[in-house]
Design a protein that fits this description.
The protein is built from 6 helices and 14 strands. By secondary structure, the chain is an alpha/beta fold. Strands 1-2-3-4-5-6-7 form a 7-stranded mixed β-sheet, covered by helices on one side. Strands 8-9-10-11-12 form a 5-stranded mixed β-sheet, with no helix packed on it. It is elongated.
Amino acid sequence: MNFDRSLDVAPGAEIRLSRLVSRLLAPNPGPFTFKGTGVHILGAGSQVAVIDPGPALPDHIDALKRALGPRQVSHILVTHTHRDHSPAAAALKAWSGAKTYALRGAARPSVGEGMADEAHDHDFVPDVAVTDGTLIDGDGFRLECVATPGHTANHMCYALVQEKALFSGDHVMGWSTSVIAPPDGDMTDYLASLEKLAARDDKIFYPTHGSPIADPQSWLDQLIAHRRMREAQILAALAGGGATVAELVERLYPGIESALRPAAAQQIAAHLHHLQARGQAVAAGGRWTVRI
């Protein structure tokens, strides 16, 4: 895949991306956050919305407040409740008085197969619960809520009507594929959400990590093709007599960094559950085989 890893901006500075959209990078780079959380500021007037305010890091929250300056925050929107996306909402709400918006519902607890749910911000509860199709009006902008479960059960994208732009959170990123960690992450939901976005006519995506995606339809095609290729590889590996998740990681991710090995195992497990739901794979005693 042709990943875009060209983003090279300093954290803490607001960068204008379009007439209505700017971005401020949080200082939390890492193997799953790339250069850091990109906090999007929406609006060209005295009132703005903030999408994914980011982690609860004091320096980041101070930088965000300085960047916002005298502008009034009218909405705080969250795509999903991972700790690099929602925790700063509490401080921003206390400072600005703005309400928080998100898809209500706690993450599914991660049990079994060694999965853990420490990535989630379980303290966050939105003031306003949005659903698929909810419209949010602000100062010179309108957002349409587009439910996209898969990366997490409570993932929501926000479409900016005026610019045919989609704030895609972690559902679609240009620098990497999304991590799908069962049971909160669900590959069947994720693939359906990709197809849902492919049926839309958004002209640009603004992911929370990495650069904007200028040709989203082409990129969605690549993401869908990549997942189909991975499932074909898994089925081919299982046809040789079956395998455990760990064995599949060794076969399909040769030479992977040790820090990324758990995420690779999560991806394999998500694909296996999807194949199981489709009647193509079956598990017994931790070993997976092709369903005859």
